[in-house]
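Human: For the file, kindly provide a plain-text protein record giving the amino acid sequence and the C-alpha cells, at your earliest convenience.
Assistant:
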Amino acid sequence: MEKLLGFYFLSVLLVAQACAQNKDSKIRKVGGGCDGCEAMFEGMPASVSWETILAAINEPGEPMIISGTIYQRDGKTLAPDILLYVYHTDNKGLYSPASNQTTGTRHGHLRGWMKTDSQGRYQFSSIRPASYPKGKAPQHIHPLIKEPTTSLYWIDEYLFDDDPFLTNEERLKQQKRGGSGIIHLTKNEKGVWIGRRDIILGMNVPDY
C-alpha cells in the first residue's frame, strides 16, 4: 500500500511539473534582456486601471499628463489588457524613493502601472522629469511592457522634442522600439504639460 501511495504522489507531482513547464513554454522570450526590470512587479497593486497618478498634488515640479493608445503589431488593431509600467526621476533628476517606500526603491517614487482598456488606452499624470544632475542626458521616462504571452520588455524612453539635451546625436541613437518615443509637449491653460504617445507592440523588439 505504501508503495502504491508513493507512486501515486510521484505521478501527481510529475503531472503538476509538466503542466507548469507547459504554461511557461507559452511565454515567449522577447526583447533581448532587461537589466533590473524585475522591479516592475515590486509593489504592483492587485488591480490596475488604464490610468494612474504617479505624483502627489504637492510633488515639486511641473505637472504633466501623457496619454496614448497601444496597438497590436499591425499598428491598427487595438491592444487591450496590456500592462505598461513607467518610472522617472524627480525634479532634481534623482530616482528618489518616498520616505515610507519599501518596494521598487531603485526606480524611485515616481512610478506606476496601467493596463490598457478595451480601446487600448492608457494615461498617466506626473511631473516633467529633470535630467540627471551634472549630466547631459535628455529628460526621459522609462517604459516597460508586459503582454500576457511574452516576457516583459523595454521600449524606447519617452523623450521631449523641446529638450535642449535631445541633440541630433541623441535622436539617432533611438531604436524606435514600440515606435518613436519622442513626443511633443504643450502647456494647457492650467499650466499642465500635455503629451501623447501611441505604442505598437513588438515594433523593433528583438525576437518578437
